[in-house]
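input
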Amino acid sequence: MSANFIISVKKKTNPMTTKCYVKIKSFNYRHIENISKQALLEIKEEDSMSVSITRLPTRIKKITLIKSPHVHKKSREQFEIRKYSRLFSLEGPHDLLINLIEKQFKSSRYSFYFSLKWQS
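output
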């Protein structure tokens, strides 16, 4: 139920606007959808910010286990782990981006890991 954040902020030549990329990963797609809706509602209130959300491919890892290791070798069970991910592209004033990241992503009710990376 945890998700990872990779946040990279790219400063443009215009000192008033900054571009920020937030990558969200989770095993539960509902968490990502809820965070997307909350972030979109918050950004719609601000006129000076723009956002685009890109769905990244779902990673599926399949695991096959033998049920009975002694006699029935053909009897197997299969499990899969799905990792959902989204990429947010945020653009706006630097101070508003910092406030949005702190408000939406740090104080979320879900447990997340994130890193902040500044690029020039």
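quick obs: The radius of gyration is 19 Å.
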